[in-house]
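Technical note accompanying the year-one report. For the benefit of new consortium partners, we illustrate the data format agreed upon in the data management plan: each record pairs a sequence with a structure-token string. No post-processing was applied to the example shown here.
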Amino acid sequence: MPQTEIGTDVDQAAALLRVGKLVAFGTETVYGLGANALDADAVAGVFAAKGRPSFDPLIVHIADPDDIDRVAASRPAVADRLIAEFWPGPLTLVLPKRPEIPDLVTSGLETVAVRRPGSRMARTLIRAAGVPVAAPSANPFGGVSPTTAVHVRDGLDGRLDYILDTGPCDVGVESTVLAFDGDTPVLLRPGGVSREAIATLTGRVLDPAGEDAADDRPRASPGTLERHYAPRTPLVVVAPQAFESPVKSELRKAGQRVGILTFGEKSIGIEDADAIEHLSDTGGSSEQAAHNLFAALRRLDAAGVDLILAEAAPDSGLGVAINDRLRRASAFTRQSGHGSGG
């Protein structure tokens, strides 16, 4: 069976998007599975290709700042400050949608998630297509997000029309998603722009589940389902000190093969692992760890282990986004009764 073409022809990819076809393309975060955001039939193809439930909204990608007015009906003044500081880049804003945006894109919500990607080639593609592009991560629903063109084909071969190879992704975790409670940002999903960086600009960032949360505060966002970004292999998040415990030896005695995902260059207590992935080799850089996260999960998933023990990252900066992804990846394990730590 012929494989889905991987290429670098932006004009071909743009032409396909214009006529309602599905095109995967790289951004600075992960590869997206793109469709014309104004074409409900094309967007339906995205949900079908991914096996994605229709209650999970999509992010709409634009090429230029003025394009936001094609997608969003309004925005608070603070949104323009965020746009000036963080666009293009891994920040998604949830805003009131224009009527031209199909309900399927927003899962029936009156808001739309929109961002301007940091990848120059992605913006060139969207500009050439002449339409905003709805694009979730280009992987089967619930699986590990792809950070190379080959990852896309591994997961979706035959389900899309073209894969535009823009090289490996730089950030490696998805965008931060913000909604707004009046003029105050509400963090719906941590990601490539840290909460601290946003708070420095805006002075305050609300938690949708915080004690001061209003009943009508936005809570719906792309990528916020409990089980998301999950490898097939059961995964348990553990505190760093767990690697100095006999847990792996006990698992080995029980006949289980164990894979280890560490945040830094740890060696104490992991020599008996069957597969090891270090997210950072530069003394625990959260930026490097975020870049390597999904590729490392894929390698461990392919290593034939029975369980992945993943070390929690320091809970600050991009470490918040890394821990969010690991928690979601472990959700199936928790539901299956394996338990979780850290």
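Partners are asked to follow this layout when depositing records. Residues 286-301 form the longest helix (16 residues).
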